[in-house]
């Protein structure tokens, strides 16, 4: 804590100071935080005596001695300060200011503060108080007037925060919320401590020694983040480490398990190493590293979302790694001083929370963990009741038992309705052996879509897309040659039909990244949501059906682009622009439409006329202008279109591969006979895929 020395006495006050007559100020102190608990670190605290027009004095040996009317101090990292002020009213032996009725006005100024958008920038506020007694803590008065330093209130998902705004602690505790990450391995045995509002290694920490603390006051889900500020990095020679834990725990064998996102170096500034690593059975292994410029006050943020690990510096992604070894545990902090005495990384302003459980981007399981039976990946995979399970062997997956339909679901995460699952074929020994990616799979139940890829490899087979709900129904058959190391992906997307969301499921099959089949499942027992997963069957031996490199994707639902909503249409619609494709957004678009008759014609009519609903676009690959065929939309019949009643309707979805900087257009035919014309509505939605 920094303490300002009182000043402002006139020379006469200095000259008589050695006399026996006491000058007794009040020791004024406080710790300043904003409404969210963030400290006003290194802020200027100014105390001004008011009114400023008076000539203030105190009594020294019965003689009035003029005093100055201002004093300044600076807070430390935790927002704490102290200063000496003469009191406005008697009490505790303090020297009272004359004339009576004075007050002290405290002004707190912080610049530059936390820059936008994360923070609110420079801040200043004031509070006017009466000072009395031998000492006075004014924290509550100042904090009541303090302005927010962060741009928002508690972030969504935040489960823990520790600004360090309290007395020193050794070990770090915060009311029991912090716990040392214990381990049978000695380097993980000591806790962190709190010193002047900052987190650092225990002074007794020896060479090659970890200091660790994890937040155990709140249970955390597997998808979690932790962040802190980097305050200092000092070294007497070689590199030292410090940073964040995610999914930290002590396993059943008593050893530490965690992911780390940390800095490493000899001093802050350019060339600091950032790294992501894992600790399993007490041993640390680096996953990925880079170098960056790290300065005091920078924010380090570490995220674990599924199998994707991300390390950010001041909000910018610096490192990403995919790993499936650890799936549960708590966030925390750590330092490691290697072989350097009097060296440390000092951290501050810890916070942690949950991440939105939907994955945005791919997750994967390369089965890197030790062999498992059944497959688990730290709880990410679960079995289906009544079905055999998979096992992981040498970075691959296979049935745990021969001649057993074996399925498992990746239920450790929640999944959006738009999802995909992909596997790589390693072994298919016979024509009875198969491997499968699954989508829209129910947890613990025999309900899913399954792509059955048959062996033996090196041959052409019928690949089956099957709905299991209940029983097995083949909804698509594709002939393909299956080879070792081929990838097969099954993707699912719910679509709008008849004006109602989630009535149909579009299922698309890819081999080695190329689409080889697609079908829309509109059956009453179609499956609209669920998890991803995988399955396999080995007829004679478990090693007859082997796959690897499971990859799943759960992209956010694509944004809805401009929509068309037309009513009371009584004529054909010529080519009309639906969407101007931006210069950077060429690619796949899905256009869904629905139309129905709203007024019948006197004699007869045909919704859509001879041409129906058509799209016009420029193909991305060959720049050819395409007009979709004049044919029925997928969900109608010729008889329905010619009903000439308000029951006549059409709907469907189209996929186009549109070139950048071109227009996607639509047109609609029309046929009506009789004095009263047929009228119809038309609704169109477009999505970028």
Description:
With 689 residues, this protein is mainly beta. The protein folds into four domains: 2-145, Immunoglobulins (Immunoglobulin-like), CATH 2.60.40.10; 159-354, Jelly Rolls (Sandwich); 362-553, Jelly Rolls, CATH 2.60.120; 564-688, Jelly Rolls, CATH 2.60.120. It is 2% helix and 53% strand. It has three helices and 48 strands. A seven-stranded antiparallel beta sheet has the order 12-15-24-17-18-19-20, with no helix packed on it. A seven-stranded antiparallel beta sheet has the order 27-30-39-32-33-34-35, with no helix packed on it. The chain has a six-stranded antiparallel beta sheet with strand order 11-25-16-21-22-23, with no helix packed on it. The radius of gyration is 35 Å and the shape is flat. It starts with a strand and ends with a strand.
* CATH top level assignment of the largest domain: Mainly Beta
Tally the beta strands.
48
Overall shape: it is flat
Looking at CATH, which topology of the largest domain would you report?
A: Jelly Rolls
What are the SSEs and their pairings?
Elements: E1 2-3, H1 11-16, E2 26-31, E3 44-50, E4 57-60, E5 63-66, E6 70-74, E7 80-85, E8 103-114, E9 121-129, E10 135-137, H2 139-145, E11 158-162, E12 178-179, E13 192-195, E14 198-201, E15 210-215, E16 224-234, E17 240-250, E18 256-265, E19 269-280, E20 283-294, E21 299-305, E22 308-313, E23 316-322, E24 330-336, E25 344-354, E26 362-365, E27 381-383, E28 390-393, E29 396-399, E30 406-410, E31 419-428, E32 434-441, E33 448-454, E34 459-468, E35 472-482, E36 487-497, E37 500-511, E38 514-521, E39 531-537, E40 545-553, E41 564-569, E42 573-580, E43 587-599, E44 604-618, E45 625-627, H3 638-641, E46 649-658, E47 663-673, E48 679-688
Parallel strand pairs: 1-7, 2-10
Antiparallel strand pairs: 2-7, 3-6, 3-8, 4-5, 8-9, 11-25, 12-15, 13-14, 15-24, 16-21, 16-25, 17-18, 17-24, 18-19, 19-20, 21-22, 22-23, 26-40, 27-30, 28-29, 30-39, 31-36, 31-40, 32-33, 32-39, 33-34, 34-35, 36-37, 37-38, 41-48, 42-47, 43-46, 43-48, 44-45, 44-47
């Amino acid at each position: 804590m920094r303490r300002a020395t009182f000043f402002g006495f006139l020379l006469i006050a200095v000259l008589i100071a050695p006399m026996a007559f006491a000058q007794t100020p009040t020791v004024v102190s406080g710790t300043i935080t904003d409404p969210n608990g963030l400290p006003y670190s290194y802020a200027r605290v100014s105390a001004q005596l008011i009114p400023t027009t008076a000539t203030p004095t105190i009594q020294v040996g019965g003689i009035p001695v003029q005093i100055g009317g201002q004093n300044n101090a600076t807070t430390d990292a935790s927002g704490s300060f102290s200063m000496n002020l003469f009191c406005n009213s008697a009490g505790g032996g303090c020297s009272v200011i004359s004339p009576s009725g004075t007050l002290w006005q405290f002004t707190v100024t912080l610049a530059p503060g936390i820059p936008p958008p994360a923070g609110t920038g420079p801040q200043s506020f004031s509070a006017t108080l009466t000072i009395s007694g031998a000492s006075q803590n004014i924290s509550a008065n100042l904090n009541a007037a303090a302005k927010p330093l962060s741009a928002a209130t508690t972030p969504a998902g935040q489960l823990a925060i520790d600004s360090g705004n309290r007395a020193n602690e050794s070990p770090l505790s915060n009311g029991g919320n912090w716990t040392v990450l214990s381990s049978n391995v000695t380097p993980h045995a000591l806790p962190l401590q709190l010193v002047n509002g900052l987190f650092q290694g225990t002074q007794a920490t020896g060479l090659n020694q970890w200091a660790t603390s994890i937040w155990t006051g709140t249970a955390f889900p597997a998808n979690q983040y932790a962040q802190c500020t980097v305050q200092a990095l000092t070294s007497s020679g070689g590199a030292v480490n410090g940073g964040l834990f995610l999914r930290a725990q002590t396993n059943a064998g008593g050893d530490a398990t965690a992911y780390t996102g940390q800095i490493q170096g000899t001093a802050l500034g350019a060339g600091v190493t950032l790294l992501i690593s894992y600790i399993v059975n007490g041993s640390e292994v680096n996953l990925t590293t880079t170098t960056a410029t790290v300065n005091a006050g920078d924010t380090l943020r570490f995220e674990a979302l599924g199998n994707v690990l991300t390390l950010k510096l001041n909000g910018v992604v610096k490192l990403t790694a995919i790993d499936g070894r650890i799936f549960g545990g708590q966030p925390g902090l750590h330092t490691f001083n290697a072989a350097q005495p009097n060296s440390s990384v000092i951290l501050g302003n810890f916070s942690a929370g949950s991440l939105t459980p939907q994955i945005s981007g791919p997750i994967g399981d390369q089965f890197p963990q030790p062999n498992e039976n059944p497959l688990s990946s730290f709880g990410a995979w679960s079995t289906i009741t009544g079905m055999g399970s998979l096992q992981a062997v040498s970075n691959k997956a296979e049935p745990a038992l021969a001649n057993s339909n074996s399925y498992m679901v990746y239920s450790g995460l929640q999944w959006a309705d738009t999802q995909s699952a992909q596997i790589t074929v390693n072994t298919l020994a016979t024509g009875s052996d198969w491997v499968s990616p699954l989508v829209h799979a129910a947890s613990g139940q025999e309900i899913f879509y399954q792509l059955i890829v048959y062996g033996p490899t090196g041959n052409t087979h019928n690949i089956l897309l099957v709905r299991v709900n209940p029983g097995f129904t083949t909804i698509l058959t594709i002939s393909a040659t299956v080879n070792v190391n081929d990838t097969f992906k099954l993707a699912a997307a719910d679509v709008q039909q008849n004006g109602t969301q989630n009535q149909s499921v579009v299922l698309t099959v890819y081999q080695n990244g190329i689409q080889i089949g697609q079908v829309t499942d509109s059956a009453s027992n179609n499956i609209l949501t669920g998890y991803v997963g995988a399955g396999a069957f080995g007829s004679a031996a478990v090693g007859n059906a082997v796959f690897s490199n499971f990859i799943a994707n759960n992209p956010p639902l694509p944004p809805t682009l401009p929509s068309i909503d037309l009513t009371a249409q009584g004529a054909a619609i010529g080519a009309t622009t639906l969407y101007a494709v931006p210069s950077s957004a060429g690619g796949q678009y899905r256009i869904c439409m629905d139309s129905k008759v709203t007024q019948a014609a006197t004699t007869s009519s045909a919704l859509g006329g001879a041409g129906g609903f058509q799209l016009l676009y420029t193909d991305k690959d060959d720049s050819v202008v395409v007009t979709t065929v004049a044919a029925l939309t997928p969900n109608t019949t010729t008889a329905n279109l010619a009903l000439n009643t308000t029951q006549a309707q059409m709907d469907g979805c189209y996929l186009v591969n549109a070139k950048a900087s071109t227009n996607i257009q639509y047109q609609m035919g029309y046929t009506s006979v009789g004095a009263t014309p047929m009228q119809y509505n038309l609704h169109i939605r477009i999505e970028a895929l």
